[in-house]
Amino acid sequence: MFSAFTIFSNPFFVSRCVAVGLGAAVDVKSVAVKNVEARHDKRTRTLKHLLKLNHANHSIIYHQLQFHNHMPHILGSAYLLGAKALHLNDVYEKGSKELEDWEDSPNEVSTYDWRDYLGDRRYQRAYIDFFEDELVLNGYEWQKVLENYLFKGEEPLINCLVTGLGHPLIHLSYAYELSSRELAMEALGLTATSYNYMHKYLDVTSYTRNSTFCTNSALEILERVAADESFDGLFEHRGGDNIDRIFTHHEGLILEHWNAWEISNPTKQFEDSQRAATALLAATREGGPSQYDFFFVHLLTTSHAVRILLPEIPAKYHINLLRQWWLLTLAVYIGQLRPAIDEESVLNYDLGGKDWCWVEKQAVEGKWSMDAHYVKCLRAIKEAARTWGDHDMFYLKAGVKFGESFGSWGGFGPTGAEEMYVPP
Question: How far, in Å, CA of 367 to CA of 253, rounded?
Fold first, then answer.
């Protein structure tokens, strides 16, 4: 491996296209934290008990170590959108049926060897036990445990949060937003067991290199990727397996576009990237008018997670967090065969008098209120509008369009759809 000297360990490192300077940070305010341990109303008590129940009973990865436990995500999103205690119980009752009990790991991990098992999902129970032991040693200050294991070392775990379609990143955002130590330890467990080659693109400086073009617009790069004939014919079909193939066989192609994003105004560019993430879901269609891409929704919900985390983590990690998300976004977009992004299809959408109250109601009372990705998606869009404003009603129209036209998830390729998606 190359030197462990990293971009973020050298705050003055600058490439031709990626501006990473001292003090470069995204300036967004923290969302209102709902401390589940400190609030005592019935809704919050219900959420707290269900999160603890899930934590005690169900593994964070299941179905032959392929699927991620989304229970905290849908419970947290529904709660934050105003769901009543009865609905939260219904969500848990239905969703828990497909989850699995914990299984013992091959052995325990310790402070001496905890990095030796990174990326091995068989050790999910051992990692949870290890991090919870650390929690006790740190006086139950979960933020300190995160500080010790996310932000320290030559190759800190924070540089590998987007693996597993970004589920460690998403989980971590709920830990902060709900101030939940159980979710924080689960997030560390997911980060440890999902750890893979993606970290090297942030940890090793040689991967940040000059590109043949530069722009500060993520959407412009996506348009260039869509038009780049170098990607034609690389894959026979869409699907998650294409992500690994891109990095194994076509690394130079994706890094060319990854390094083209010149981050000179982090706050504005993060704002633009959130709009791009929303457009990727709401303004692309490949499988019919009611089918949305399962992988694109993860780009939106991980972007939302970045928004939650940025005000909570040290500023020196902001640029790397944005660049992680951008690397995942490019990989997924290329792997899903680069569909055209038609923002006008959102901007021209007829709201029919519907507003954010209607959107919220769909998330907690509608037909798809038991679908974790549906609920998370609507909340992500609403929070983006709240963060940046919605002068052209793009976010509201995206939320309404998705909320009322959604019928199924697609984009899985020829196999796997039946297993990955179970309608409510």
Answer: 41
Q: How many CB atoms lie within 10 A of CB 190?
A: 27
Q: Is the pLDDT at 126 greater than 90, yes or no?
A: yes
- Give the side-chain half-sphere CA count within 13 A for 246: 27
Q: How confident is the model at residue 220 (pLDDT cuts 50, 70, 90)?
A: very high
Residue 148, judged by CB atoms within 10 A of its CB (0-12, 13-18, 19+), counts as middle
pTM over 0.90: yes
Residue 259 φ/ψ region, left for φ over 0, alpha for ψ in the -120 to 50 degree band, beta for the rest: alpha
Separation CA 395–CA 358 (nearest Å): 14
Residue with tokens 């052995």: 107
- Residues whose CB falls within 8 Å of the CB of residue 355, separated by 6 or more in sequence, listed in order: 396
- The mean per-residue pLDDT over the stretch 399-423 comes to 75
Instruction: Give the model's confidence band at 416: pLDDT under 50 very low, under 70 low, under 90 confident, else very high.
Output: low
Confidence class of residue 289 from pLDDT cuts 50, 70 and 90?
Answer: confident
> Are the C-beta atoms of residues 262 and 18 closer than 8 Å to each other?
yes
The mean pLDDT value for 331-348 works out to 97
The answer to whether the CB of 317 falls within 8 A of the CB of 23 is no
In whole angstroms, what is the distance from residue 320 CA to residue 116 CA?
24
